[in-house]
Amino acid sequence: MLTFSVTILGSSSAQPTLTRFPTSQVVSLNERLYLVDCGEGTQIQLRKFGMKIGKINHIFISHLHGDHIFGLPGLISTMALAGKKGELHIYSHSELKMMMEHLMKYINEFDDFKVVYHPLNFRKRAVILEDSKLIVESFPLKHRIPCCGFIFSEKPHELRLRPDKIEQFDIPIKERVAIKGGASFQTSEGEIIPSQELTFPADPVRSYAFCTDTVCRKQILPIIRKVDLLYHEATFAHDLSDLALKTYHTTATQAAELARDAEVNKLVIGHFSSRYKNVASLVDEARVVFPNTFAANDGDRFEL
Amino acid sequence: MLTFSVTILGSSSAQPTLTRFPTSQVVSLNERLYLVDCGEGTQIQLRKFGMKIGKINHIFISHLHGDHIFGLPGLISTMALAGKKGELHIYSHSELKMMMEHLMKYINEFDDFKVVYHPLNFRKRAVILEDSKLIVESFPLKHRIPCCGFIFSEKPHELRLRPDKIEQFDIPIKERVAIKGGASFQTSEGEIIPSQELTFPADPVRSYAFCTDTVCRKQILPIIRKVDLLYHEATFAHDLSDLALKTYHTTATQAAELARDAEVNKLVIGHFSSRYKNVASLVDEARVVFPNTFAANDGDRFEL
User: Fold this and answer.
1) Which of A104, B64, B88, B186 has the fewest C-beta atoms under 10 angstroms from its C-beta?
2) Using a CB-CB distance cutoff of 8 angstroms, which residues of chain B are in contact with residue A67?
3) What crossing angle do the helices spanning A96-103 and A72-81 adopt, rounded to 10°?
4) Which distant-in-sequence residues (6+ apart) come within 8 Å of B79 by Cβ?
5) What is this structure's pTM?
6) Which value does ipTM take for this structure?
7) DSSP class of residue B239?
């Protein structure tokens, strides 16, 4: 199977701490890197955790609060200085383009490097990127300003040819691609062998859902249902559920309830309020509801 | 004497490295903190080096390149979130205000906290701040875009009263302030005792000059003459003097020549190109010309 992982670059909420930068993470599928949110210091964290800045061609921005975007100007400048070519695609609220262009006014002209902004739809689920391996969709969350979650889903894999059957029926190379796609095979004697007899099942399709910043929102359950990994913000412990509601954030217990109800495989909580010097209590609280919960810490890598 | 020091928060040039953040430093005089430039991650460095963000009320921005300003939005947001009151004064090119206001659009309203922008004059030396202890002046440097240096000078100190003379002439408390300011004293017998007989000399007045980013510019020599500490950029070693000239930067040798010709006490070089994994060679190069040279490293504190 291809490597499919999520690396946490920042796990704090609005204010960074000595150990937690603001929100940013890298979704990595088969050496392709997709950046999700870009808080201040993202370029520094990318370097620290050995991730190649030049490999990032797509950035997904959940919303326009500073702790999710203030790393963009520096990251883009560094890409340009490092001679990056081609297009960098940023998926965000439409206003980001203007905000960035004002700030980048004095950055030197980029020769063969262009930033392309793609406006998100904050009203409904939508496919925003599809490449050979992956589909990325956005879906509405509910925060103080327009905010989206993202779901990264592998495309269906091919069936895997059985070496014993290839030999038994002496299947020519040119027919193998079709069989992996589900076609049957006709032997020289005219016998039809169905694909499922010639192959092992395809690798399961994996998916990752990213949800921050938002009030606890049951409407997302059908969207995040059975994902392999759910990242959900848990800015507060549940004793501050009133504050969470007021500031449009989620508690650790609520995040765990969503994970349980959506039957996801694993939950990672993050976007911790800087008041928590140690987030073990938040993880403990969540594990009462959903045992397979882990804290996001800067530098952590979660494999799907 | 009051504590007068400079703490380096960032010593890299355009691109941060694993050990060097972009330009920022704190000038500290008697517990008052003055921030100079504000590259990405400045708020993180302030925290790391134990400097109280809430104590900063004045920020001096040399020019509008990203590696000197991209930390401002996050720093201001954090100040606001931490409940800072009153005014934060930012001294910069007049365009910064508009650039920042676009980016800060989605930051919540600050109740009793206001950012006040003061435009710098890039044509001539000018006093930009004067408080009870300090005078800050800007002066023109020469870079690809308008750029200023800053000079921080202590105000003249009072003369120090001699305890033996106070006793000898039984000087009343209410007359002592005038004597420390240079007034003479009349004894009950009508004798006039000049101030210099009653006092020790005042502590020497110290000054700090900050010069980045700029080509080597002899015109600054009268301004930085005999400062206690000169911070000057040395983006490149002298074998790259052509590149330095082309990009409007200075070499280590050139910075040392300025320090020598201006008869400063100590030179700190910084704003190192990320190509230098080890900057010892730059310091060695400078010390050939000006022995009292040191490298700026993130976290270093230089006392005046």
Assistant:
1) B186
2) 74, 77
3) 60
4) B53, B54, B56, B88, B113
5) 0.91
6) 0.89
7) G
